[in-house]
Amino acid sequence: MKCADWLLTAAERGNPATRLDERHPGGQAWSDGNRAQPLVHGAAYFAELLAGIRAMHAGDLLLFTDWRGDPDERLDGPGTEIGTVLCRAAERGVIVKGLLWRSHLDGLQFSEQENRHLGEEIEGAGGECLLDLRVRPGGSHHQKMVVLRHPGRPELDVAYVGGIDLCHNRRDDAAHRGDRQSVPMAAAYGPHPPWHDVQLALRGPVVGDVEAVFRERWQDPAPLSRSPLTRLQERLRREDSRADRLPPQTADPAPCGTHTVQVLRTYPNRLLSGYPFAPDGERSIARGYLKALRRARTLIYLEDQYLWSPRVVDCFARALRTHRQLRLIAVIPSVPEQDGRLTLAMNLIGRITALDELRRAGGDRVAVYGLENPAGTPVYVHAKVCVIDDTWASVGSDNINLRSWTHDSELSCVVLDQNPDLREPADPAGLGDGARVFARELRLELMREHLDAPDGPERRDQDALCDPVAAFDAFAETAASLDAWHEGGCRGSRPPGRLRRYAPPDLPAVKRVLATPLHHVLVDPDGRPLRLRRRNAF
């Protein structure tokens, strides 16, 4: 398998200002010899992260970026609050540096207050956490990463990249009873919203790549905010918003596995002055999808929080129209996050128009599902995962929507396993690349959970779900059984599985907007000013 057939070259990344690809021999735009492990659910991620931070010594380096951070969110039990864990690390002499999105006002239900409190706790313990508003208007820093470096002990180095924030609602597991530390969502999700999410644990040379992403942002000399009000508040608080120097970056960890990993990003074309590491922005996440989808032949498996925007799903639709054997499975939230009249309608309009585009292209080869837990409560799908033909696998912070592909900062990792999966079908796409262990096992792990299918080594050796058509049909049959059980008044034993066919609520307000010929101009489900949408070239 040629990596360049699936992954972006440095030229295709379209951002010559970054040093990300210069780090590799010959300017190769990816790193080889890594070991990637999917951590499905916040509980699994938080437990591993807690153990890793507790094992750090004085002089070790802990770097993180996040969209939201709640200092009292527990990684495990009492005494493991993320603020406490980070502060204790700083007090031990670990170098702790963080970048949090400064966010909007709390009245807009974003996270300014929570981010400020976490930053203040860390700085009080001797670390440094900057509140970063170097974004385009209406945008956010959405990257979610943690990097743990150990000078003299590089075998312990690890980077975490994915969709899981260090905040409330995220610590859930496969039972999907929800995080006990919850924030309100739509009423359908109950007091403790069940939460489905995925993070990658990365070991090997790619750890240096993820660290380089952090360093580029940290070393940006631009003020953290252009807002005169914000800068005045900082002066009144006597805050120094300038970043301290980081210690020199150590050598990358040694190769330790069979995984080729490419780091992809979104950065907007920032107004007035661009990022020094991306003066015209970066669209490598979007470009990575565009390149990989041209090779899709059998099955695209998606888990996504939004799946919005006809402009973004157009590349999926083109693949479905071109290859008549190609199928697409999407797992998304069955209910939008919030109940508000405006936000609910915006969510549904964006999703309905995107799904209509996919179904026009693929017909019954497109299947979209929501999830519920055994009690029948909807599960909020926050994961951002795509597996194409059991070969190309992406996990990151980016959603399938225009914000993630053009406007917010995002971070994603694509994994190509050099180790082929020899179970049948060994080459489902027929391109000579063959299924790969990492991509196939990621898809199967997620599918087995949603199907309530048994796990274990014996099942993995003989799994019928390896076949794309059988997997597509298994999802359809499981969802049909569960839907029928609900429609029949939930009589008798509940069928196995967590899948429900996705059906958007039937709201008159949404119908009225969709009936408007120019609704795609009048309504932007990504929530940005119309003038900013005209500049979104992938």
Give a description of the structure.
This protein has 538 residues and is α+β, with helices and mostly antiparallel strands. It contains 17 helices and 18 strands. It has helices at 3-6, 10-13, 42-54, 82-91, 112-124, 206-218, 228-237, 284-293, 310-322, 341-362, 402-407, 437-451, 457-461, 468-487, 508-514, 519-522, 530-533; strands spanning 31-40, 61-66, 95-101, 128-132, 145-149, 158-162, 195-196, 198-203, 259-267, 282-283, 299-303, 327-331, 366-372, 378-381, 385-388, 392-396, 410-417, 499-501. A hairpin with a 3-residue loop joins strand 15 (385-388) and strand 16. Helix 9 (310-322) runs parallel beside helix 10 (341-362). The longest helix is centred in the middle third of the chain and has 22 residues, at 341-362. It is globular and about 60 Å long.
Number of helices: 17
The whole-angstrom Rg is 22 Å
Beta strands, count: 18
Would you tell me the structural class of the helices and strands?
A: alpha+beta
Strand content: 15-25%
Main β-sheet description: 18 strands, mixed
Task: Note poorly predicted spans.
Answer: 104-108, 527-535
| Arithmetic mean of pLDDT | 89
Secondary structure blueprint with pairings:
Elements: H1 3-6, H2 10-13, E1 31-40, H3 42-54, E2 61-66, H4 82-91, E3 95-101, H5 112-124, E4 128-132, E5 145-149, E6 158-162, E7 195-196, E8 198-203, H6 206-218, H7 228-237, E9 259-267, E10 282-283, H8 284-293, E11 299-303, H9 310-322, E12 327-331, H10 341-362, E13 366-372, E14 378-381, E15 385-388, E16 392-396, H11 402-407, E17 410-417, H12 437-451, H13 457-461, H14 468-487, E18 499-501, H15 508-514, H16 519-522, H17 530-533
Parallel strand pairs: 2-3, 3-4, 7-14, 11-12, 12-13
Antiparallel strand pairs: 1-8, 1-9, 2-5, 5-6, 6-8, 9-10, 9-17, 11-15, 13-14, 13-18, 15-16, 16-17
